[in-house]
Amino acid sequence: MAYQNLISEVKENILYVTINREKALNALNKDTLAELADVIAYAGKTEEVRGVILTGTGEKAFVAGADIKEFSEYNGKQGEELAKRGQDEVFNAIENSPKPFIAAVNGFALGGGLELAMACHIRIASDNAKLGLPEVTLGLIPGYGGTQRLTQLVGKGKAIEMITTANMITAAEAEKIGLVNHVVPPTDLISKAEEILNLVKQRAPLAVSAAIKAIIASVNNDNGYTTEIEAFGRCFETADFKEGVSAFVEKRKANFSGH
Ligand code: HXC
Fold it and tell me: SUPFAM superfamilies given for it (predicted)?
């Protein structure tokens, strides 16, 4: 797929998406958000794609936030529309995707950049990454789900401290409070994400999607137990359930079709 602000390619069933605005530290302008919405929809509907790795170009930044230069003319209604549209088309779209998304946080993940990483299902950070939600330094608050997802990931006290002080934290601190899953040297960042997706790729795709959906229902207070029960039942209707059980009984490796 040809985009202006993203590099995207599928290799061995993994979709690699790189936000490519290095001079602006990969800040999310409107065009980048529209392209992200497109590539997220593509990932969701393309059977070949079994997982997504999202990162930023260069060694300095994953994403340094929403593009501040686009904000200056906004009024309240436009601000609300910006947040709603972004949440619907990009941030919630990632979280609700049937495909697992891993954020490979290769540097600054600030404001909308950290919100983007938090919308992903798993976060890996390079050891030089810095993470924060500095919106209050601009007279704003997080608008792409940051107040909700940071609280879910690190708890109320840490979330209030990070958001109200606007302090950036190191990758090591982020790992300590559960904001990122792993911290690795920059050279190992993508291979660590691949290592995880290569395991996920061996599992039954519909079961993987169903499990993520039930977990997300839990954190969003959206009838998690009922979601789990219904999704559990649907798993029995899949060809992959039959394949998984047959493979176990026949003592061989399962070969899942995703159906
Ligand atoms: C637009 C940005 C940008 C951003 C950096 N740049 N962040 N442009 N929007 N969010 C641009 C700079 O203007 C500069 O371009 C170039 O990238 C390099 O940045 P510098 O500031 O010169 O680099 P450095 O001194 O190393 O500082 C790095 C930094 C700083 C600490 C990451 O750039 C910074 O604080 N950026 C803003 C972070 C932030 O506040 N993010 C939250 C945004 S609000 P020029 O052309 O000037 O050289 C948000 C709201 C989300 O995300 C919710 C919306 C609904």
Answer: ClpP/crotonase
